[in-house]
């Protein structure tokens, strides 16, 4: 297989050895997300609504710090800020800007809510919370009050580490969305993407080539963590459904191949066992199978295999390019890009290889990504002028709508688990950066700023 | 580009020193113009003025015999000034033009001359394609170049291919001048 001369083999061996040495921390082992201990909600069962059918207006003032130490006061400030942002992100509630109620005095205790002042502000609900130093970290209590009815609607208590106070806000946000709107929020989800931010050079090349490594951040860009450290190209990372593994394309051995990093266990898997060159892997919705592109039979085609590489099946057979698979939410179909009609277009085929059909009518379409239920839609990158724009195709109606409009190039859309948002790469702010946008094209936010960042994927 | 020029300059200076040292050992120095040290080195300092030459033929820098170049250069130096020329492609295409075929024939001639030489063909693409699809397109470009070399009698196991899609552009610009340079099969010598 490898015909490099001794010198290159030695260099290769050094790289492999270096990788092996760090295998214990490859990927850099991470603490599993600490799940705050929860106690039973103190009051449940009331859903907060807006007045006269209007959107519910919520306020989230700073939490009360019941201890004076710096850690506790910091946590109180951060949790209020982040909870407001998390709730604002889903656009289910109208979030009253925080600077408009800085003048409202904090409640003297969590039970002494100045309802009149919040009513004056036009708030339907207000989240009041406390943070207190505990034996191991902090105790956080959060309550949602109905301002008009002057009663508690929902309440939670968490105790846990003070290392990442944002997580208490994220958890509360997801629970509020679930209890109040039956909505699966994304506040605790994460993004993975490929980045050259560490500015290291690829080894063994004449030209200066920057490595790209896989990174993970919270959905809002906080807490960036580097996952790969092999000083090669590591691109197109995608999550396993359980959020504990990332499968990606790595040039660790000099050619593209599929690696799985178990990011909390700190272990790696090499499912293809070195057969051919393999890229663009993506887990099936149940996490047991991986669809990918490979040249193992002499031309880029779509294949599916078990997570351990067994039960390999070839899905396409065409002399033109077949690439970039994505699973349907039920795991029964695969959409992919193919050049078989002359330009890259999106096609759909059953995982048994039956029912092939073309679904896009663009000058160039790639990176299909199938939306989670209930939306039967595929987002993709469509050529538009010198670059690309994100479009969404409704498979049922065949209609396509555009999400971005030529601000830089916009590529590689990836859905959030609730189907309400997408992450994508855009050059609108200069270099390649990760952005998020809602499915209606609104709520565009820049997630990354450091280096060039590309090909995002959103955890379940 | 600047680094390449710098490397070349260092090489030239080094050669000059070596030549001077050898001369010093062999025989007393003789005043005469320095021979052009290397083929195709546009950045050479002009030779010192010498006595008028009787022969008025145009001075053509004689290309160094390829044997010497490839024999003495390190792999890195060889790849910096490669005897294998890159093959360029049109937008979205992995077709080898007739011009491209001529270029590959010249590359094949080099490979035939040095039967121990092994190469990796890198397939590259411009930013006008997507990151994802470009990986397959780069693979097709590398493969198209390889297949043509094989059709000319080059052993397939001497030629490896790898696609980098648009991950490593040669020209970071955002216009056709840059894009046309980035749509290419790049030949890397991995053994000589």
**Roughly how much helix do the residues of chain B carry, as a percent range?**
40-55%
Which consecutive residue ranges of chain A, at least 5 long each, have pLDDT under 50?
1-28
Name the chain pair whose interface involves the most residues: A-B, 47 and 31 residues
What general form of chain A does the structure show?
Answer: globular
Q: How far is the first residue's CA from the last residue's CA of chain B?
A: 24 Å
Provide a count of the helices of chain A: 4
**Main beta sheet strand tally, sense and closure of chain A:** 7 strands, mixed
Mean pLDDT over the residues of chain A = 90
> For this structure, what is the CATH homologous superfamily of the largest domain in chain A?
TolB, C-terminal domain
Shape of chain B: globular
Please outline the major beta sheet of chain B: 4 strands, mixed
Rounded to the nearest angstrom, the distance between the terminal CA atoms of chain A is 38 Å
Which fold name is given in CATH as the topology of the largest domain in chain A? Neuraminidase
CATH architectural grouping of the largest domain in chain A: 6 Propeller
How many structural domains can be distinguished in the coordinates of chain A?
A: 2
Fourth CATH level, the homologous superfamily of the largest domain in chain B: OmpA-like domain
CATH topology of the largest domain in chain B: 60s Ribosomal Protein L30, Chain: A
Radius of gyration of chain B: 20 Å
């Amino acid at each position: 297989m490898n015909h490099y001369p001794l010198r290159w083999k030695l260099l290769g061996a050094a790289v492999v050895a270096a990788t092996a040495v760090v295998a214990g921390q490859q990927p850099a082992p991470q603490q599993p997300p600490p799940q705050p201990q929860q106690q039973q909600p103190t009051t449940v069962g009331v859903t907060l609504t807006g007045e006269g059918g209007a959107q519910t207006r919520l306020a989230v003032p700073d939490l009360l710090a019941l201890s004076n130490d710096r850690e506790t006061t910091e946590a109180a400030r951060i949790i209020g800020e982040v909870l407001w942002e998390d709730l604002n992100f889903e656009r289910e509630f109208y979030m009253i800007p925080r600077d408009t109620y800085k003048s409202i005095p904090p409640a003297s205790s969590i039970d002494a809510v100045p309802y009149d002042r919040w009513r004056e502000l036009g708030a339907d609900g207000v989240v009041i919370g406390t943070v207190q130093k505990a034996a191991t970290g902090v105790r956080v209590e959060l309550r949602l009050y109905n301002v008009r009815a002057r009663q508690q609607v929902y309440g939670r208590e968490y105790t846990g580490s003070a290392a990442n106070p944002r997580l208490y806000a994220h958890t509360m946000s997801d629970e509020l969305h679930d209890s109040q709107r039956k909505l699966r929020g994304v506040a605790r989800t994460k993004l993975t993407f490929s980045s050259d931010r560490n500015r290291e050079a690829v080894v063994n090349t004449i030209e200066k080539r920057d490595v790209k490594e896989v990174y993970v951040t919270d959905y809002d860009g906080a807490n960036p963590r580097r996952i790969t450290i092999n000083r090669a190209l590591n691109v197109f990372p995608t999550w396993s459904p359980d959020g504990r593994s990332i499968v990606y394309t790595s040039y660790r051995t000099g050619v593209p191949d599929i690696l799985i990093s178990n990011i909390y266990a700190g272990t790696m898997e090499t499912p293809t066992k070195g057969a051919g060159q393999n890229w663009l892997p993506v887990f099936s919705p149940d996490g047991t199978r991986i669809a990918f592109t490979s040249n193992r039979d002499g031309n880029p085609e779509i294949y599916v295999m078990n997570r351990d590489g067994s039960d390999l099946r070839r899905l396409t057979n065409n002399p033109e390019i077949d690439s970039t698979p994505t699973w349907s939410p039920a795991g029964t179909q695969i959409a992919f890009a193919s050049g078989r009609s002359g330009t890259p277009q999106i096609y759909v085929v059953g995982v048994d290889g039956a029912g092939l059909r073309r679904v896009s009518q663009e000058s160039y379409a790639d990176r299909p990504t199938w939306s989670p239920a209930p939306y039967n839609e595929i987002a993709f990158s469509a050529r538009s002028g010198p670059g690309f724009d994100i479009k969404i195709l409704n498979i049922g109606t065949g209609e396509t709508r555009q999400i971005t409009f030529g601000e830089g190039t916009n590529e590689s859309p990836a859905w959030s688990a609730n189907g309400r948002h997408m992450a994508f790469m855009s050059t609108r702010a200069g270099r390649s950066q990760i952005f998020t946008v809602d499915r209606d094209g609104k709520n565009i936010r820049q997630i990354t700023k450091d280096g060039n960042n590309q090909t995002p994927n959103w955890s379940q | 580009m600047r680094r390449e020029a710098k490397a070349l300059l260092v090489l030239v200076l080094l050669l000059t020193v070596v030549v001077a040292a050898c001369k010093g050992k062999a025989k007393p120095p003789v005043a005469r113009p320095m021979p052009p040290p290397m083929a195709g080195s546009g950045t050479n300092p002009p030779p010192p003025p010498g006595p008028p030459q009787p022969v008025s033929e145009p001075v053509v820098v004689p290309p160094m015999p390829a044997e010497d170049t490839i024999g003495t250069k390190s792999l890195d130096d060889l790849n910096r000034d490669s005897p294998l020329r890159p093959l360029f492609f049109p937008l979205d295409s992995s077709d080898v033009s007739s011009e491209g075929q001529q270029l590959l024939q010249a590359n094949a001639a080099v490979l035939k001359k040095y039967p121990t030489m092994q190469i990796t063909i890198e397939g590259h693409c411009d930013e006008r394609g997507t990151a994802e699809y470009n990986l397959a397109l780069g693979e097709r470009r590398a493969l198209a170049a390889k297949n043509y070399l094989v059709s000319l009698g080059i052993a397939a196991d001497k030629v490896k291919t790898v696609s980098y899609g648009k991950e490593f552009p040669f020209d970071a610009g955002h216009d056709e001048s840059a894009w046309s340079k980035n749509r290419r099969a790049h030949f890397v010598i991995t053994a000589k």
